[in-house]
């Protein structure tokens, strides 16, 4: 061996214990993490656990191709989440995939049909004038008497996303701080002191939809009134369905949660402004007026006109008929009142929002403005029985694969498989632990292709050992004894392993980034296991080899060690400075 | 290891000396033949695209469905108005494929089937695919393929050299063509699972090729400093010396895939497991073949066109002729340690990735004391 090698090999030999300890600590830490976080098994995908998986594709409106962007997709995901989980579907998950797909996974045991309808339909966002409203059922059963307490406008504030506190303060003050929602023109928020009294009785208005532009026939009005009277928004089933089927051009009843978390029912006029008329909505922290978090909206030119019309009408009216309801999918998400006609094309909804609430409302408003519709691309329903069966099959396949590889290694590498097999097991343990933890951390779900990826990875991992072992054998063939052979073989094997693993990882990464659907799960496991392969070879296989090379069994090239110089056809170890190299001048 | 037969033993001892590069024309010929067959197969028979690519629905009935395949076909046709393909799976359930129905309509079909065949609707596994989904998957896959190829060529050109990158790319295209060709000829159904398998071959086929190239790069480091071997000789030796590893790797990679295929085919009948493992199986075999028989000989071919390599070949041949004339046995010399220094070569040493000053090697047994 050349002189310069000595330093390196000496240091390499001193390290094995430390590396082994390191990887042992890693395994223990990961396992502890698994138990501590309660994720002792990987989260299973729909195809293994059973359930329904829906893939939706965003279709932009004509000429709006740029509408498919991250912000819009995220907004859509928020809304769908709201819709699906609003059904009482527990643990449904909605996520974007690729640049234009949304995946909705609904676990087994829930009504997937209804969920499909939910996500499949386009969200409808309307601004409808409020004709009447009252708290539904429950404690504060207000008599439907037209009550305007004093000069102040009684303010039944609503907003599904609201959980405002301190609602007892009847403050004839700047609306900005009132618990009600006021729509003002831009920054004029605090200009008009609008008294907002929030009486304990949750004031309300007469349930007479007569005020609605006389367009509604009296018969329809009567029907609506009956509906309204019968409507009980405290019932879960009713909450989301009440206003769902309403046509935009007709009055309807609807439910919504008010700021104190009570359900409120509404009679709403025909839609005055469409969601698509909203150009932009965002949550803003208004420092100038101390209004706190507000939501600003900008309308399109068409929307501006419509909005100006409706606010002009509403501003003349009495509470609650000066309110309009922002209705998303038939659900009232906010019902601000109007103080004046807003003609500027922009408006601000203020109130005691916190940041999350403001952003939530802004999102919903934006969604209505999304020039996107969503099409069902694929729907997969897997029964729990089949899921279990597939999981079972995957595990058996994995076991068979692993078993075959182990047998092969035993036959060809004999004693060396005492290094290869534990390395495979360490790799498997790390993969399992990391997958379990990632389920929680990044929502990784083990699906069938991912299982496939893991099984295929057995080959990749085992290959690294083969590269290393073959290199060692090459060195032994050249007449070296084991310990120098290991140290000489390692740097070259290491390079080969790194280069080839890099190519493999590159493939996985490209697949993961570019592709959609099942391919991604596969690519993810493949990438993960490739990385772990490098970790295991460096921190486990090599150190273990170094340690075992000191054992007599291996060092003397025992017949069953897999390193028997005779079986390998090694040349007799000669003392020389020149190798005889009769066969070839091989360096590898 | 004699039990494994003499070839096995020789392989084990690393003594196999097949002239891969010398016989490359034969293997090129075989590959071209296979490739042409594959392309013809693709052109004539086309690929049997699964439901996922055409749009439609796949229903899987619960285990031990009483209805027969023929009955199920009739029911499905009645319910959907389209022809249905029904397969009986290993566990006694039926897999009913109906092309061309809309995701919305599939619900009623599923309900009708459940009624006809007398099981609860909730026990049906359904896979409904809109027609654009498959297109999208395929488009994404092509995109991934293109990006990957570009990146890999760049990477290999940097890590090795452009000739190797080109050869690897040719081998890769070769593998993919053969795999898809086999799919066309045999008529296996192409599903997203197949695409996954095919894409994995990318990584795997290259993985194999890269290992051979790595050895080749190492061995040809100082090639111009000697006159015993031409580039092709060294390339051939690289293949032979990594042959054992190539075989082991391929076998080890194929074993788990075989496990998958066995389970996927025998136990579940059809499905993702089967699709992925089938294309992997075919592709891996093609990949192992191409890295040995195509990629490296191709590099040798390309390299031999370089002026330096041409010059080297000339010198090597001249030297061999000379030793032959002297009655020596050129291949049996024991003194030579490969790249013995010859002063006249020092000037030409430009090719090796790391040129060492000629003086450094002089008087030393090993030309490259430093190994990476």
Explained architecture:
The complex is a heterodimer of chains A (588) and B (372). Chain A is of the alpha+beta class and 588 residues long. Chain A is 45% helix and 18% strand. Chain A has three domains: 8-45 and 383-568, Multidrug efflux transporter AcrB transmembrane fold, CATH 1.20.1640.10; 51-121, Alpha-Beta Plaits (2-Layer Sandwich), CATH 3.30.70; 125-374, Gyrase A, domain 2 (2-Layer Sandwich), CATH 3.30.1360.200. Chain A contains 16 helices and 18 strands. Chain A has a five-stranded mixed beta barrel. A five-stranded mixed sheet of chain A has the order 12-13-17-7-16. Chain A has a four-stranded antiparallel sheet with strand order 2-3-1-18. Chain B has two domains: 14-49 and 133-303, Multidrug efflux transporter AcrB transmembrane domain (Multidrug efflux transporter AcrB transmembrane fold), CATH 1.20.1640; 56-129, BMC (bacterial microcompartment) domain (Alpha-Beta Plaits, 2-Layer Sandwich). In chain B, the strands form two sheets. Chain B has a four-stranded antiparallel sheet. Chain B has a two-stranded parallel ribbon with strand order 1-6. In chain B, 50% of the residues are buried. Mean pLDDT of chain B is 74; it is low at 330-372. Chains A and B meet through strand 18, helix 10, helix 12, helix 13 and helix 14 of A and strand 5, helix 6, helix 8, helix 9 and helix 10 of B.
CATH superfamily membership of the largest domain in chain B = Multidrug efflux transporter AcrB transmembrane domain
Based on CA inertia axes, which overall geometry of chain A fits? Answer: elongated
Q: Counting H and I runs of at least 4 residues, what is the number of helices of chain B? A: 13
Coarse shape of chain B: elongated
Helix content of chain A: 40-55%
Termini separation of chain A comes to: 15 Å
Q: How many domains would you count in the coordinates of chain B? A: 2
> In terms of structural class, how would the helical and strand content of chain B be classed?
alpha+beta
- Tell me the radius of gyration of chain A: 34 Å
Along the chain, the helix and strand elements of chain B come as HHEHEHEEHEHHEHHHHHH
Largest sheet, strands/sense/barrel of chain B: 4 strands, antiparallel
Low-confidence stretches of chain B: 330-372
Please state roughly what percent of the residues of chain B sit in beta strands, choosing from under 5%, 5-15%, 15-25%, 25-35%, 35-45% or over 45%.
5-15%
Q: How many domain regions of chain A?
A: 3
Mean pLDDT of chain A: 71
